[in-house]
Structure formats: C-alpha cells, structure tokens
Amino acid sequence: MERFMNLSELQKKLIAAARLNPPSDQVPYAFEKRILALIAARATTDRWAFWTRGLWRAAVACVAVAVVSGAVSLLAPADNGDDLSQDFENTLLASVDQADNSSMP
Amino acid sequence: MERPESELITAVLKGDTASFEPLVAKYSPRVFATARRYARRESEIEDIVQEVWLKAFDKLKTFRGEAPFEHWLMRMAVRTCYDFLRGHQRNRESSFSEISDPEEDWLERFVADPGNAAEDADAAKLLIGRVLEKLSPSARLVIQLLEIEDRSVKEIAKLTGWSVPLVKVRAFRARSEMRKILARMTSDKYL
Predict the structure, then answer these.
(1) CA torsion sign, B124 to B126 to B130 to B136?
(2) Which residues in chain B touch residue A32, judged by CB atoms under 8 angstroms apart?
(3) Closest chain B residue to A28 measured between Cα atoms?
(4) For chain B, which end, N or C, has fewer CB atoms within 10 Å of the first or last residue's CB respectively?
(5) What pLDDT does residue A3 have?
(6) Are residues B99 and B180 in the same domain?
(7) Residue A23 carries which DSSP code?
(8) Do residues B12 and B55 share a domain?
C-alpha cells in the first residue's frame, strides 16, 4: 500500500494541518503573581542557604583542627622534657621577668 | 501609564523585584504558546514557562538591550523547551497501533484522494501531533520552527544557539526522520 501513499504529500498535508492549528496562548489566572512569589521565596531560601553553607564549612574546619590537635597530643612523646604550658607561660611573661631582673640592684 | 521595558529591567536589576511582574504579565502568553508546541500536559507546560521566567530573572543582568527583550526571552523559551524534549524522550518508541478511528479514516481518505483529506480536520491535527512526538528532540525543534512556524535558518540559528550549517544539517535529517516515521505509520496501518 505504501506505493499508493504519497509520503511527501502526506508530510505537506500534516505540516499544513499543524500550521492551521496554532496553540493557545492562554495564561493561568494570576500566573505572574505565582512567579513573583517563587522569586521571593527563592531569595529567602538562598539567604538561609548562604548562612547554612558558611556555618557547615566553619564546623568542618573546627572539627578538622580538633582532630589534628588531638592526634598531635596523642602521638607526641609522653615526656619530652619541658612542659608545653610552662614554656608558653615563660614566653608570655618573658618581658615581665626581664623588667624585674633589670630593676634589681 | 505603562512603564517602558528598559525602565522596568533597570528597576529589577537594582533590586525592585515587583517591576518584574509587568514583564511576566506581558510576555507570558507568547511563552505559553511556545511551550504548548512542545509539551501536551498543562502541568508540564506550566513547569516549562515557570522555568523560563526564573531563568530570565536570574540572567537578566546578561540582557544588554541591543535586541528587544522579547527576542532574548524567546531564545530562552526555545532552549528550555528543547531541554524539556531531551529530558522526555521515553514515549518515542511506541507504535502507531493506538491511532483512533477518525485518524484512520482521514488516512484512508488521503490514500483514496489526497485532495479530499482536509488539513483543518481534527484527525489531521491529532496525526501531526503523534508524528511530532515520535521525532527526536532536535528534529522536532527544527520541524516546528522551520516548517510549521516558517522561520528562516538564520532565525533558528539565533533561537537555538546552533550554527547555520548545523541547522541546515539538522533540517535535512529532520525531514528524512519525519518521512521515515510517516512510512512506518502508514506501513503499520496499511501493510
């Protein structure tokens, strides 16, 4: 039967049919209000997303620092001579000690 | 008095979101008509149009005002419809066994006498809808823009972002793809 079916003619007819039936341009009621509401809602979500993302990143960084500090304190030799807190105090108060020593007769 | 488009766009870019509303109200009919050419279900059509407007809002700062806002928006609409077609290809492989009686009658009339089958018949409209749904996304877009909307190759290149030679190649392939689909449809029914 295909030999009786003129395909290019059929193609032309169907294209013409499509041209004769343009789609409707009807817009749902208050569609523009819906779009505006979506934009507003998205802006609020975006602001929260910004803060949430930032806080999560900060939390990850804090956990990483805590893990590294913990690992260092665990893996460091138990008795390595001078106490770290004592060293810190000596350094911090070095200027005071120096001042005291120089004021002595 | 209606505010000019350029003024509305400038206001939106400065943060006045409400100024976007007149633009949506003015151009939504055209965007809806475009979306209805590629999607059938009303929920899908609304999703497409919504996506077009959200993209337009996000990319508004890239609108330079050299061409009318409508052209810029329609480019976005056509590309969004193309993305939609690419994402919804699942029904293309079905057969033509579901052709209704009026469509079959129309084809019978066409076979008997091509001049006797009216183009304005509802059956012809349904048939072209079925054929378009079977086309690949690029072929459907080209047939729609070139053959049905009667746009030039240059216009299609601008709308789709494809080069002129690519549009020509795709148009050639689309026509042959459509002919193959028609051959399959008619052989399904008549052989």
Answers:
(1) positive
(2) 21, 24-25, 28
(3) B46
(4) N
(5) 47
(6) yes
(7) P
(8) yes
- The pTM score is 0.75
Question: What is the interface size between A and B, counted as CB pairs within 8 Å?
Answer: 111
Q: Which of B88, B113, B140 is the last residue of a domain?
A: B88
ipTM of this model? 0.84
pLDDT above 60 for A87: yes
Burial of B32 (0-12, 13-18, 19+ CB in 10 A): buried
- Nearest chain B residue to A19 by CA distance is B148
d(CA B63, CA B60): 5
Query: Does residue B163 sit in the same domain as residue B104?
Result: yes
Instruction: Point out the residue among A4, A6, A38 whose CB comes nearest to the CB of B50.
Output: A38
Mean pLDDT (chain B, rounded): 89
Least CB–CB distance from A11: residue in B18, B54, B182: B182
* Interface residue of B73, B81, B119, B150 to substitute, partner A, most A CBs within 10 Å: B119
When divided into structural domains, chain B yields a total of: 2
A61 in B contact zone (CB under 8 Å): no
The first and second tokens of residue A32, run together, are 């523009």
pLDDT, tens digit (0-9, with 9 covering 90-100), for B41-61: 999 999 999 999 999 999 999
- The CATH number given to whatever domain includes residue B40 is 1.10.1740.10
Domain boundary among B39, B64, B88: B88
Judge if B83 and B98 occupy the same domain: no
Q: B1 and B62, same structural domain? A: yes
Query: Counting Cβ atoms within 10 Å, is residue A62 exposed (0-12), middle (13-18) or buried (19+)?
Result: exposed
Are B106 and B178 within one domain? yes
Q: How far is A55 from chain B (nearest CA, A)?
A: 25
